[in-house]
Amino acid sequence: MFPGIRCSLWVVLCLIALCHVDAHPHLRLPEHDPIPAIKGLISRTLGPQYNSQVVVTAKDERGYDVSSFDEHNGRVRVSGSSATAIGFALHKYLKDVVHTQADWDNHALVVPAVLPLPPSAVTIAKNTKFTYYLNVVTTSYSFWTWDWPQWAKHIDWMALQGITLPLAFTGQEKIWLETFKKYNVSTAGMQHFFAGAAFQAWGRMGNVRDSWGPFGPIPLDFIEDQYRLQLRILDRMKEFGMLPALPAFAGHVPAELVTLYPHANVRQSSQWANFPEQFTCVHMLDPTDPLYLDIGRTFIQVQTQLYGGYTSSVYQTDTYNELLPHTSDPAYLRASSKAVIDSMLAADPNAVWIMQGWLFYFMKDFWTNDKIEAYLGGVANDRLIMLDLWTESFPVWSRTSNYFGKPWIYCLLHTFGGNLGLHGNLPKLATNPITSLAASDGHMIGLGLTMEGIFQNYVVYDLALEMAWRSTPMPLDKWVQAYVHQRYHVENEHATKAWAFLKTSVYRDEGLVDSVATTRPRWQLAVNETDVDGNLLLPKRVSSDAVSAAWTELVLAGADSVGKVDAFQHDLVDVTRQVLNNVMVEYYTELVQLYLNPKTSSSVVCSKADQILDLLHEMDTILATSTAFLLGRWIRDAKARGTPATAGYFEYQARNQLTRWGVGTLNDYANKQWAGLVGEYYAGRWRVWLKAVCDAREAGIPTDDAKIDGQINDFEVAWQTQTNEFPTDPVGDSVEIATKLHAKYGTKQHRVLDLGSHPSHYHFASKIFDDVMRESLMPMPDDSEDNHVDIPNMIVRYGATGAGKTHTMMGSERDGSGDDNQLGHHDDDDDNVPHVDGIIPHALTDIFRLINSARADEEDASVAEGLGFQWSVVVTYLEVYNEQIRDLLNPSSRPLALREDPVKGVVHVAGLHHVTVETSSQVLQLLRS
């Protein structure tokens, strides 16, 4: 496609999106004064002294938000159609001109004493009405321990991102408590209806009830404190002109209501996530029962009263989140949704319902299109907004004809449980919101973030938030380079290279892979456990080569001034964490292979087990250097939500969510690779399992897996109620410790063959050659306890005829004779023409040097005793041409075929000639003959 045609296509797509009838409900952002709101924002984020350098002006725009910044009379001017639009303009100026960035980790903004003036005016318009923020469960995975200072910073961050429609669910238990008092439900009955403090999100959706554990129900003072906190949250959101989505009634009721209203039509919901019935099967009031409308109306009336007469008229609630309706009758499904909106409208004639569309994906076998259409048909199109919760991966809107006419918001889900792990799809995110908007017939009315937990992969969300203001695809290479500059405040060649590796690997359509370190130890650690033939499936490493290359560049960058930047230190720790996870996969794989080999001694197996435990300790050590990866802060903040008398309750809640998630049915769902958690909890489980494995091998008996699992379970349960403290401040220097770890693990991950100064004899572009050597060559194992070592390798050459491919690999022609230890630049005695060796001669010389050195060592009986090393080098040489495989060491043979070895599970060339050699010269003679 020609560039001009491509540009025209995007213009056409944008015009298509604009020509269709606007389908969203008639919601307007509340009246507010943006100028004092932004001045307050500047004072809190930059400092009050900067208000004199920034002019804040409001634009009168009736359509979608517009933002701009420019120079005005020697000062920076930021303008917009709302406070959040001006906030976005301010942040855009800070990112593009000052090269600093606000993120949700609250890394410090780096701003000079005198703000630089914008070189030119910049104006940006939103392409939809709303920027939505938060998943219902984010409130539990990330926010439940927060106090007002943390919330205040986060709402400021929302304003800088242009967020207009945030979820505001904090403290709603106070509303439920006061509502059901009117129906004579006791306080004790409500406490058993409410989920635990760390699990309120699932209680609000009717998935779970009550507080499990030894500390009793949720404390009432926590409910009151959260309500007071919500009032402050709403005040700040209103100040910025945001439209907070408030809670509403979805039909879930306390069990006590059944006794109080025996004639009401109440049934228990389906069991959720295999929880014991006492903690799930929440009671559901039938939508056709008259009491349904009454309770729903009362709830909103009480809520409005407790909020000082305020309501946004936007309400978020979910009746069937991961729960099946008791019938698939279309009339009943239609009545279910109609009851929800009718109860809202009974209290607020302007009510609009926001619903998460997750149920239609999660239970898609039940929710066929006819049932979805029936369910949504109970609500008028202008009274319902659908959150297409996982648009980037599973867009429900496209298979339901825009939710059968309902307005919907494009949502980025991306991550579950707040787990850590480098992953994302930046290329898709740079285009998909725009193509989705163009195809939506005007029904897509916004873009939102619905991740289950924050504090991970910020680059993905930063791009998504900018896409809300784009009408054409984002030029990704340029954007990522700018992101690195903004994040670290300076341009650094190594940091830029690191992110280039990350952009083309983990952030290019790679899904999140569970960490082996945080998974309960067992023999099969893979999603499907075994393949169809019962063979062991080993876990996957996350783009190990590219991540390791990025790690190398970040370690090099750390030696520069950027190493002092807090955001850089965070990312260095995060990438180091990912690399060590990849090493963990490798160590686990090696342990399994060693154990399955009956010839492997118990000492070798146990030595590998010790390596795994050492690795977990080192992972914990690097995580401890950054505030973002500290278990101690999570527990400290949780305990601060209570009193000395209830601190045990909140610590249990904090520990339980991260680990057993209830009574063990969702074990490790919300795992976090945090210092303290890795070093004590995850390493503790691995210690139990590895000891049992070593003991079994030493005794010559199989492992008793059921017994081991029981021991691990006992360890987990005991950890829930422990009260030992963990550091709340960083320990150690991130750059220093990462550098030491890189010296130990970097070469292992890179597979680099260290050729010392030899490359200086090559007349190549040095960067290209360095990359070839770094990424293509593997080291000989210097201390292997295996009897047999295979070193697979491949080097791909590409270039025009005469470009130097053969010279790169083989070097200059010579007779192949000479000392195997002589390498590099040679002078021919006859013609005085210099000869240069290529990559293959270099590698061969190094291989035989190592072999000869090992043989010399074996002459010392104290070294060689019991090892019995035998070294052999076997050469094969083949050509693939015109889809045929030819054996170059046996040119008279017919074309060869590929075969799969059913035992080893590898592909090989059948009938390929093998020649055993003793010197590199023999190899070169074979190749050149």
Explain this structure to me?
GO terms for molecular function: ATP binding; hydrolase activity; microtubule binding; microtubule motor activity. Residues 812-827 have a biased composition (Basic and acidic residues). The protein has 929 residues and is α/β, with parallel strands linked by helices. The chain folds into four domains: 31-125, Chitobiase/beta-hexosaminidase domain 2-like (Chitobiase, domain 2); 130-474, Glycosidases (TIM Barrel, Alpha-Beta Barrel); 514-538 and 573-748, N-acetyl-b-d-glucoasminidase (Four Helix Bundle (Hemerythrin (Met), subunit A), Up-down Bundle); 751-876 and 914-928, no CATH class. The chain has 33 helices and 25 strands. The strands form eight sheets. An eight-stranded parallel beta sheet has the order 6-5-16-14-13-12-11-7, covered by helices on one side. A four-stranded mixed beta sheet has the order 1-3-2-4. It has a three-stranded antiparallel beta sheet with strand order 8-10-9. A hairpin with a 2-residue loop joins strand 2 and strand 3 (75-80). Helix 5 (148-161) runs parallel beside helix 9 (220-239) and helix 22 crosses helix 28 (734-750). The protein is globular and about 90 Å long. Residues 1-22, 526-537, 750-792, 814-834, 860-869 and 901-905 have low confidence and may be disordered.
Summarize it.
The chain is an alpha/beta fold and 929 residues long.
Largest sheet: 8 strands, parallel
Strand proportion, as a percent range, falls in 5-15%
- What is the overall pLDDT average? 87
Residue windows where pLDDT falls under 50 for at least 5 positions: 1-22, 526-537, 750-792, 814-834, 860-869, 901-905
**Principal-axis shape:** globular
The CATH H-level homologous superfamily of the largest domain = Glycosidases
Task: Tell how many strands the DSSP assignment holds.
Answer: 25
CATH architecture of the largest domain: Alpha-Beta Barrel
Helix content: 40-55%
N- and C-termini, Cα separation: 47 Å
List the domain count as a whole number: 4
Taking strands numbered 1, 2, ... along the chain, how are they ordered across the largest sheet?
A: 6-5-16-14-13-12-11-7
The total count of helices amounts to 33
Could you say which structural class the secondary elements and strand pairing correspond to? alpha/beta
CATH class term of the largest domain: Alpha Beta
Q: How large, in whole angstroms, is the Cα Rg? A: 32 Å
CATH topology of the largest domain: TIM Barrel
Protein name: Kinesin motor domain-containing protein
Pfam family, one: NAGLU
Region (Disordered): 804-831
Domain Kinesin motor: 730-929
